[in-house]
Specification:
By secondary structure, this protein is mainly α. The chain has seven helices and no strands.
């Protein structure tokens, strides 16, 4: 879990710093293709194929590929490019909360009081994390002042 968190944080910072010369959709497609090709031999070696494919199976798989991976990653990389890094990193915490809400709404699952408190704690931390970059920016006088403070020094004329 710690290695996953470090990897996610490093990937978010590096994706923000080193912007790809292609659109987020193209970048996402290549990353997912590379990951699938890497995992394919392991899946074929260790997993069994279904006895038969049904239309619901194929539609479910397409839904996972297009909406669950393609569209969501395209939005993720677009957000990385437009939002402060601290704000983006906190948004990853919303994934399990979203899954929990969908489980409640679609499957009728319920949460214990401790689980509900945990979900509320995550939501509060994400909300506070989104406020912190705005408060820091306001403290230095807005984005224009911040940009001037971090801009390289220009040589003096004259």
């Amino acid at each position: 879990a710690a290695a996953g968190a470090v990897s996610m944080a490093l990937g978010t910072v590096l994706a923000k710093r080193w912007r790809a010369p292609v659109s987020p959709l193209v970048l996402t497609a290549w990353q997912l293709t590379a990951g699938a090709l890497f995992l394919l031999p392991f899946a074929l070696a260790f997993e069994t194929l279904p006895a038969r494919l049904t239309l619901p199976n194929v539609l479910g798989y397409l839904w996972l590929c297009v909406a669950g991976a393609g569209v969501s990653y395209a939005f993720w990389f677009r957000g990385i490019g437009r939002l402060p890094t601290a704000a983006v990193s906190a948004l990853g915490l919303l994934s399990p909360v979203s899954a929990t809400v969908l489980g409640f709404l679609v499957l009728g699952q319920s949460l214990s009081p401790a689980q509900m408190a945990g979900a509320l704690l995550v939501l509060a931390s994400v909300w506070l994390g989104q406020r912190a970059p705005k408060a820091a920016q306001a403290a230095v006088g807005g984005s224009a002042a911040s940009d001037k403070a971090h801009a390289p020094l220009a040589p003096r004329q004259g």
